[in-house]
Specification:
Layout lengths: L1 H5 L11 H10 L11 E4 L2 E5 L3 H10 L5 E4 L18 E5 L5 E6 L1
Parallel strand pairs: 2-3
Antiparallel strand pairs: 1-2, 3-4, 4-5
């Protein structure tokens, strides 16, 4: 949340149970393979996991016909997961037909 706030996003965070989080991911059609530890929505898009703010801005500017973005898992080096030995990771874009592809490599 801090990363998003630092980059100009207004964040309204809510603590939910694990069961509720599963339901939220299902409601927003987040594929199981793309699940992260957080689910957010911004301007009609789903943002799943530790997606960098500048990539969210790019998505909003491009406005593609997709469900949203995901950084699956919790890769070290992604926003909020800083630490020694950062790992390269992919930001994945996914659509309502179940297609996904790498949107950006970090």
């Amino acid at each position: 949340m801090g990363h998003l706030r630092e980059n100009g996003f207004e964040v309204d965070a809510k603590e939910v149970s694990s069961a509720d989080l599963v339901a939220i991911k299902a409601k927003h059609n987040v594929p199981h393979a793309l699940e992260g530890c957080h689910t957010a929505t911004v301007e009609g898009y789903v943002v799943e996991g530790h997606v960098p703010a500048d990539v969210i801005v790019r998505l909003l500017e491009e406005d593609p016909d997709v469900i949203g973005l995901s950084v699956p898992g919790m890769p070290v080096g992604s926003p909020g997961m800083e630490g020694p030995n950062p790992q390269p990771y992919n930001v994945v874009i996914f659509d309502k037909e179940g297609h996904s592809e790498v949107y950006e490599r970090r």
